[in-house]
Amino acid sequence: MKILVVGGGGREHAIIRSLKKNTNITEIFACPGNGGIAADATCVAISATEIEKIVEFAVENKIDYAVVAPDDPLVLGCVDALEEKGIPCFGPRANAAIIEGSKVFSKNLMKKYNIPTAAYEVFEEMEAALTYLEDAPIPTVIKADGLALGKGVIIAQTRDEAKTAVRDMMEGGIFGKSGSRVVIEEFLTGPEFSFMCFVDGEDVYPMTLSQDHKRAYEGDKGPNTGGMGAYSPVPIISDEDLEFSLEKVMKPTAAAMVAEGCPFTGVLYGGLMKTPQGPKVIEFNCRFGDPETEVVLPRLESDIYDIFSAVADHAPMPEIKWSEKVTMGFVMASKGYPGDYEKGYEIRNLDNMPEGIRVFHMGTSLKDGKYCTAGGRVLMVVGFGADLQEAHDKALAAVESIECENLFYGRERG
Ligand code: AMP
Ligand code: GLY
User: Fold this and answer.
1) Residue 63 phi, psi dihedral angles, 5° rounding
2) Residue 283 C-alpha to ligand 2 middle, in angstroms?
3) How far, in Å, from the CA of 165 to the mean position of ligand 2?
4) Does the beta carbon of 225 sit less than 6 angstroms from any atom of ligand 2?
5) From the CA of 157, which ligand is nearest?
């Protein structure tokens, strides 16, 4: 069986490592993959958003099954295009991927179906947004409607900051078209957790919980990023919170998508916050989280291909088992990330990692047999342990043994 994985980051590396455990899979291709993925799959020099080329490649190479992992190709209709050519896929079609592709869509869906989330207003005109901000409670949260690489959210601590964010998005175009509409939302407080579920229409199969760490620098400081580290499971989230999140958030959302005529198939990611009033949705994603996947999938003991095909074929789901061991991982990022950064620095000591460590490549290239930095987030180094402290210590020791002059990481986080 030949599998195509669309994407080229740490999430895709973790998916490919899990797929490799299935002995019926003879070949895995990655579009475009990366330096580290090249050790586990055949990398094809087609970017994840070149939908036509991906389809052409899949047809020519008689791909049996495709996994479309990143948000952009999902929102652009990569699954629709592959399915049109008869290639079964794991991932939502474009009309369901909009749950991530448009914050206005997801907020309106939550309002209509009573799914707990922060109160909000949508603005299409900058002047109206600025007027609203004159009296809005502060801090406030400004969100670009469309995709923005996890950077389209500004938490404004002052009215001026909020207005600048609105101007930057709606007039300055810092997120391009994604910022032409904005959501201004109530600021919520509490610990966040990532609840990813395999979803097939109304059927929802939860994964183990994880938490990612959004701020770029230690001490919860610095700008928001796509995620600088993660761990799984999340002890601060009680069974009651989990039950509530499944029954009152994820299942009703899946049912709402069916009712709206855009049934979701794939991974629905609930970014939730445990507020004093209970769990509320911060965001939905239409895919596996990154770096959450790198701490969640290593704990999966069931066959991931069986799960993927049960979802794609609308067939009965096998039992989904998780290891008792816990995981914690640190992202090693290029200095400057999430702002500008340089690429091409050699990374040494990646071979011979000790037992209980998994290194997933997020943004690397392979040049003359040497790994080099090739992205903002470069590596996700994950440790296994009996508890979070052990996983943390192991991961940190591994991170410290990796040599590269242009990488940084946060010591206390996972
Ligand atoms: P998002 O891309 O929507 O997940 O937002 C990125 C991060 O901004 C979240 O993980 C939160 O830490 C923070 N955030 C987003 N919305 C809110 C909110 N309404 N209240 C407080 N923090 C928020
Ligand atoms: N780590 C957050 C995300 O994948 O969007």
Assistant:
1) -70, 135
2) 10
3) 21
4) no
5) 1
Q: Return the DSSP state at 248.
A: I
Count of all residues that appear for the chain in the document? 414
Q: Reduce the DSSP state of residue 83 to 3 states and report it.
A: helix
Nearest CA among 272, 305, 270, 310 for reference residue 286: 270
Helix 94-101 crosses helix 103-112 at what angle (to 10 degrees)?
A: 90
Q: Is residue 120 within 6 Å of ligand 1 at its C-beta?
A: no
Neighbours of 165 (CB within 10 A): 26
Answer whether 191's CB lies under 8 Å from 279's CB. no
How far, in Å, are 126, 226, 316, 352 from residue 6 at the CA level?
Answer: 37, 19, 25, 28
Q: Give me the tens of pLDDT residue by residue for the chain, a chain 414 residues long.
A: 999 999 999 999 999 999 999 999 999 999 999 999 999 999 999 999 999 999 999 999 999 999 999 999 999 999 999 999 999 999 999 999 999 999 999 999 999 999 999 999 999 999 999 999 999 999 999 999 998 877 789 999 999 999 999 999 999 888 888 888 999 999 999 999 999 999 999 999 999 999 998 788 877 777 778 789 999 999 999 999 999 999 999 999 999 999 999 999 999 999 999 999 999 999 999 999 999 999 999 999 999 999 999 998 889 999 999 999 999 999 999 999 989 999 999 999 998 899 999 999 999 999 999 999 999 999 999 999 999 999 999 999 999 999 999 999 976 554
Q: State how beta strands 278-285 and 265-275 pair.
A: antiparallel
Q: CA nearest 100: which of 135, 139, 144?
A: 144
- Rounded to an integer, what distance in angstroms lies between the CA atom of residue 394 and that of residue 42? 30
Q: Tell whether pTM > 0.85.
A: yes
**What's the 252 CA to ligand 2 centre distance in angstroms?**
22
CA distance 190 to 238: 14
